[in-house]
Amino acid sequence: YPEAVSEGQRKFLGTLWNTYAFFVLYASIDKFNPLEHDLKNQKLTLMDKWILSKLNSLIKFVDESLNEYKITESARKLGDFVSDLSNWYVRRSRERFWGGGMDEDKEAAYTTLYTVLKTLSQIIAPFTPFIAESIYQNLVVSFDKNAPESVHLTSFPVCDESFINLELERGMDDVLRVVVLGRAARNKVNIKNRQPLRKLFYNGRAELNDELKALIRDELNVKEVAISSDSESFIEYELKPQLKTLGPKYGKLLNSIREILAEKPRQIVAAVKDGGVFKAEVGGVEIELYETDLLINVKNKAGYAAESDGDMTVALDTELDEMLIKEGILREIVSKIQTMRKEAGFEVTDHISLGFSASGRAKEVLESKEYLLDVLADKASSDLKGYIKEWDINGEKVTLSVEKIC
Predict the structure, then answer these.
(1) What are phi and psi of 168, to 5 degrees?
(2) Residue ranges of the alpha helices (H) in 253-405?
(3) Which pLDDT value is given to residue 281?
(4) What is the pLDDT of residues 353-368, one digit of tens each?
């Protein structure tokens, strides 16, 4: 099965190696020496605590599974962990590794990611021995001359229960589900993630704490996150008769049945759910409707975009006021300027002079100059010079120019 092998290589080994390469790149720039930093002395963030909890839960699971020769289950768990490490922890923590100096937050990020990668090299040693050895040699042996000379001469990691926080893991699982559904809801109504929205509603197992809500707010660009016990308040039902079943039974009454379906869609859906039946009298005849008798179309209620998966529903308030619209334009402009900086070959630390030509809301946003600090622009004017490019910013024509200030 060469396709399955290629997929495994891309999803697991490729993701793991990219995460390792990310760490090595920035650790080399900052000359990070793991022997000089102790994990237990770090001021860990919520994300640090979460990934360390997941790591120790992983150690426990894989150790117990291998003792019972459950190889496939262990491999799948490892794949899920590496995906979470790359696509959530590293992506959400990326900015912590940027910039000069070594403040306590950056130190905690480096020490946490180092601990995870070093431990992973030992966990994966029975599965991918050569990749594990390569990571171990670079991260451990090159720094610690007293360390075992091979990952295969080390003991299997021991779970540190003090790091495990199952409540945090469950809460983050809910956050990840909310984020996936929130992205899908945005895509459904074609609203870019750079466009801020007023509110997100979700229904889940429990109320998320403020730190977890903050992650959702930042990831999905919403101002407020709230729990809702009534997921159906964000959707509407459109019902039509299934002619194959209702035709033979109530042929002459179909038009009257259509009227009932239009009048009481929510009541009917609730009644037929899970094998139930909806009964009514039509033209002096008692009819019975089952779920198989109906074509049920679920639509978003006006002003909302909702997505569901099992017991989780997420709904976005899609109504935009003037302030939200302008903030969306501002974010688009910042993104385009950053793109132009890269295309022009500027260094991350280069300061620029910005030129612009625009009308409408885009002109108002550009003239506000609220974005200057974000793009390292010392000044902005209508004077277009340097690298010039035309953009469509949320339907408005905008011309921007960037010039490095020497």
Answers:
(1) -65, -40
(2) 254-263, 265-272, 322-343, 360-368
(3) 87
(4) 999 999 999 999 999 9
